[in-house]
Design goal:
This protein has 143 residues and is of the alpha+beta class. Helices cover 49% and strands 22% of the residues. The radius of gyration is 25 Å and the shape is elongated.
């Protein structure tokens, strides 16, 4: 899963993290597991209360464009998704989607689209070079 994700319990202790979360926090799995969530992830106090309410009510919470800070320095804008893990009492899954990740995906898709367009135009131009009379006739018909 490319999105940093972690599982935490009712005591707000981190139970497990995926490799993307290790990269996001720039900390190893061993160092993250067992640590207090809010000592690793810094968000607005009101939002923390909403997280607690969601956990108490076994509810889902989706918050877009949140300033998230870690021990590593500057704040990053992220989308947060919180959901209870079914069948597991008091365990919550938190997915942190940094906005730059979404931007990179969009840029990649745009670059792929542009390259496909360029290839299509090159193929069309190659056909016209091979068959110049048809190209001239076609252009004349358009006029």
């Amino acid at each position: 899963m490319p999105v940093p994700s972690l599982v935490y319990d009712s005591a707000e202790r981190i139970i497990d993290v995926n490799p993307s979360a290790e990269g996001f926090f720039n900390t190893s799995h061993r160092a993250l597991v067992g640590s207090f969530l809010w000592h690793r992830l810094f968000i607005d106090e009101n939002l923390r209360r909403n997280f607690l309410n969601a956990q108490e009510n076994s509810a889902r919470l989706f918050v877009n464009e949140v300033q998230v800070n870690t021990n590593q320095g500057e704040a990053r804008v992220c989308n947060l998704k919180l959901a209870p893990i079914s069948g597991e009492n008091d365990l919550m899954l938190l997915m942190i989607a940094p906005r730059e990740l979404a931007g990179r995906i969009t840029l990649t898709q745009t670059a792929q689209s542009a390259s496909k367009s360029a290839i299509g135009m090159a193929e069309m131009l190659a056909h016209e070079i091979k068959n110049p009379l048809a190209g001239i006739t076609g252009a004349a018909q358009l006029l």
